[in-house]
Structures are given as structure tokens and as C-alpha cells.
Amino acid sequence: MTTSDGKYNIKAISTKLGIQPGTLRAWERRYKVIQPTRNAAGHRLYSEQQLHVLNWLIDKVEQGFTIGQAVELLVLDKNKSSSNMFKKEEDYASQLAFDIQEALLHFNESEASQLLNKAFSIYSIEKVASDILGTVFRNVKKMKLNNKVTAAHEYITISFIETKIKHILVNLPVDGRLPKVVTFLYGSQKQNSLQWLLYTLFLRHKGFEVIHLGEGISFEDVELVLREIKPGLFFSFCQREEQINELTHFTRSMQTLFPEMSVGIGGEGCSQIADSHCSLIGSNQGEWEEWINNWFISS
């Protein structure tokens, strides 16, 4: 999906911007600066690019301009050079990631939270989690490996990211028609939990109820959870390549115990799996979409 594709309905966009839907409709009719697309039912759908424009207009209004003056400035700037008015989306997302990272490395969680809230006001949940928080996660992990930051810096950063993503998980709605899912992070290293968290978020955003079992939980305890919950899907995440054989063996045994349960394996430690019972789910959202779509077709 590109930044020009419609993705937010008028209720969502008005909530993000803090203005009434009627105000948006009036701006569209009078100034024609924003022309959202319509879905099959005729409802407005706004793109991320249009969200950028509306945020810019509201900033001008808050600075004391009337909406008419703000629109005139917008048109004038577009005529000069639209690139001078807005930063490119990827550049701005990268800047936000850098700023959040710097705040966390200076132990300023309050500033990092403010920057993160700003990111959520502009981008989708998936983009903020994957492209912004994910970038910070990987950067700090790499810096720790190269001894450029301390274990304390790494701990603060990863704890902040995990807390924010888990908060999102709790607040996403569940589709009761879908089967329950268990995701399991094998191992004891918190710093390698990114893909597990992002995949859990991906599933929750799809409407699945997900029980996420974090690092340090034994195979025996996972089996007890599976027996009690009887999920339709079970995903294991491997943190290191040397763990893949034992994790594959465990996952295969769970498939034997629960033949109605579909299983998959992911994580940074998984490069390839030659096992008919344990398929790789992939390492990015495109591959995850393909895996879950194939599951929907076959189930």
C-alpha cells in the first residue's frame, strides 16, 4: 500500500487530527484541498499523504492563521516546490526513529514517548512498530554488539519498545470467529524478541486473539498452555541458529499431539527449515501475509 492509497475512514482521521468530521467535510467542499477516495459503500477513505496535509493545515491554524489563509499558503508552497513543504515520508520516519533512539540512549523516556505519539499521529501502527521502533531496536542491538553503548542503554531501549508494542496488543479488538493463537519465543535473550513481537502485533491487527509466551518459558510449560487453550495456530520463534533443531523437534512433537493445530516457525535464528510439519512463516509482513492467506485458503 502506498501513501496515496485510502486507508483511514472519516471517524479515524478526525480522531487522529482532533477535529470534527463535519469540519473535514466543510473544508473539502469549500477549499477542495483534500479529495479522499470512496469505498464501495461511498464512505470517505483518507491516505497517509492526505493525513500529512491535514496535519500541516491544522498546525497553521493553531499558529493563528485562518483555514483559508492556511490553504493559500499550502497552494503557494506547492507551486514553489512541494518537496520544500513536506519531508519525504521515509526521511521523516527515519528522523523520528533517530530522535526516539537518541532520547532513549539519554534515558529520556518521556521525550521518547512524545516522539512516539507524534509518529502514531502520522503513520499506521504497522509502520511505526516495524519501521520506526524496529529500526531503533536493531540499531541499539548493533551498537551494543560493537560496544558503543552499555547493557543499561540496551535494556532501557528494548524495555521501552516491548512495553509500547505490548500496550498496542492489549488495545486491539479481537474477532471471536477466528481461532486462538499461541506465539512462543524460545530462549532467554530479551534483545532478540523483535520479530516475535512484530508478528504477534501482525496477528492481533488481523483480529486474532494471541497468547504470547515470552523468553524463559520451558517446553513443558508451553505444552501445558497448548493443552488448556487448544489453539488453532501455534508459532515458535527461534533466536539463534544453534537452537533451531531442538525448537523444530519440539514444534513437530506439538503438531503430533495436536493434529488439528497449524504450526509455523519464525525468528532471526531461522534461515531455512526442511520439515513438512514446520513451515517458515517468513521474516517480513509481506511473507507473513502470504503465509496467513494460504492458511485461510486451506482451513
UniProtKB/TrEMBL annotation:
Domain HTH merR-type per the UniProt entry, residue ranges: 7-76
Lineage top rank: taxon: Bacteria
Database matches in CDD domains: HTH_MlrA-CarA
PROSITE patterns referenced in this protein's UniProt entry, alphabetically: HTH_MERR_2
Keywords noted in UniProt: DNA-binding, Transcription, Transcription regulation
Cited Pfam families: MerR_1
The protein's name: MerR family transcriptional regulator
